[in-house]
Structure formats: C-alpha cells, structure tokens
Write a sequence for this structure.
C-alpha cells in the first residue's frame, strides 16, 4: 500500500508518500510547497492542485490521507483553509485516489499513541518510524503523520476483517 | 469576451456562461450541479472539479467570475463552503482561465444597480438582461449574475483605459 499524506494550507502545503511493504514503513518522497501571499488565492489553489497531480503521477500512490479540520480560529481562516483543502482533495480524486480524512486526535493516537500529544512529539515519532533523522519541515512531518495514520487504520481494519473470518 | 460564472457550494453549484459580443449579452449555457450529502465531501469536490473542467472544454470561456465570500454563519459552514470554492477555482485555473472574485455588493450593484438588492431582484434582472424568461434555478441565476458583473467590470475598465489614452 502506498499512501499520499497531505497537510494543506493556502500558504504552505506539506506532502509525504509512505509505502507499507508489509513489514515496515518506507518514506518514498516528502516535502512542502510554499506560495507567496502576493500570488493571489486562485493562482495558489491552481498551484496546489497541479503540484499534487504531479506528485501522484510521480509516486503513484493509491490512497490519500488528509487531516480533517473541525475547528478554526474564525470563519475567515476556516474559509481560506477550506479552499486549500478543497483544491487538494479535488486533485486526489482527479488523480484516481481514494481520499480519507482523519482527525488530529486520530493521527496523534496512531503516531504517538496519545491523542493529546504535542506537535513536536508527532514530528519526533515520524522521524523515528520512517528513519528520517534530518526531517525538519513541519508541514512535511504533518503530511507524513497523516499517511502513517492511514496505513495504521487500514492495517487494523484488515486485521479485524481477518479475525472475523477466522 | 466569454465568461464562466460560478456559484459554488458543497451541495449545489450553479454555473452560467455569458458572451459579450460587443453589443449585447448572450447566455451560452447555464445550469447547476447538485450532489447528495451521502456522496461524501471528497467525491463531491472531485465532481465539482470535473464538471467545471468539462464546461470549460465545452463552452470555451476565457475568464471565470466567482462571488467572494467574506462572512459565513460559522467557522464550520465557512470551512465546507471554502472546500467547494477551492475545488471550483482550482478547476478554473487548471482549465487556463483567469479567475476573478466579486463581492455580493459588487454583483448586486452591477446587475441591479443597488448593492443592497434582494436575491429575487438579482434573479429578475438576470432574466431581463439575458432574455431568460423561464430561468428558475437560483444557483444558475447567481452564477450568471457573477458573469454579468465581471463583463460590466471589464467593460468599465476598458472604457477607463481608453479615456486615459484620449
């Protein structure tokens, strides 16, 4: 299973592709796309879409994981964040991926084992789990965490299905 | 000039293409796309994107006009609306269009001549301006109003530029 994790934002969008070869988690590629505010929102959304479509062509993931957002500082910031997530999710569907959303709590639980973990702990565990000791980019770390969470959720679901069949 | 107006929403997205042949406004096509809530947000965003790309291929507009949103009932509805607008605007940019945003006030001012006009008055004026006496769909009417507003804004801008050169 190869999963594209995305941490979308109107200024910075993190991405990370993680492969689960059945034994361990392998990072395929990761990084983040930053866009200047001077670019204007429509052009930034177009760039987010195009970049994610390019990543899908390059890394060939089959599923996409995005952190679900339930709260925002205010309606204005929620609206802008929504635009970036909409462009990112449309790119995933357009690229033929199944798109899954996970809450911050689910991601922290999957990566750190504790739903109220600090952001720094999540990045630390992503580095350990994927052997990325030099990972600094916080947006890429959040994207990779979403991908790891999805792989855990899928493995758990498969194990449950097997257990039911036994 | 041929303009695609879009009224994006996560459940109903209105669209309308208007041509300005230099003498009058001609509606090219219009309608709305409705998607069931049961479909899930990612799939709905993918459908909005695909439908708008298809419309661009079919009607060949060169510019896109969308109503800008500054307020929303709450952060949750702003976030969802943002997703739909993000997918729609990404489709416009991906289709090679220039994307323009207009406030509800600007659209009402352009179509009705009064920024505080009721929604029904806007639809009424859209019917008169475009000769669409049987137009019922409120989402298509809002999309057509955005397109008409953009054509007015562009014509005004051109007239100002000409005046400066004389």
């Amino acid at each position: 299973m190869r999963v594209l994790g995305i941490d979308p934002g109107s200024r910075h969008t993190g991405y990370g592709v993680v492969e689960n070869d059945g034994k361990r988690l392998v990072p395929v590629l990761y990084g983040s796309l930053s866009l200047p505010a001077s670019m204007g929102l429509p052009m930034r959304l177009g760039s987010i879409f195009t970049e994610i479509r390019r990543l899908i062509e390059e890394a060939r993931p089959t599923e996409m994981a995005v952190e679900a957002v339930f709260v925002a500082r205010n309606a204005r910031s929620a609206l802008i964040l929504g635009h970036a997530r909409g462009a990112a999710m449309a790119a995933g569907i357009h690229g033929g991926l199944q798109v899954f959303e996970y809450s911050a709590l689910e991601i922290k639980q999957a990566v750190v084992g504790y739903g109220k973990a600090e952001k720094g702990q999540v990045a630390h565990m992503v580095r350990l789990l994927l052997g990325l000791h030099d990972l600094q980019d916080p947006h890429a770390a959040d994207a990779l965490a979403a991908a790891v969470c999805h792989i855990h959720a899928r493995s758990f679901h498969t194990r449950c299905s097997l257990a039911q069949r036994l």
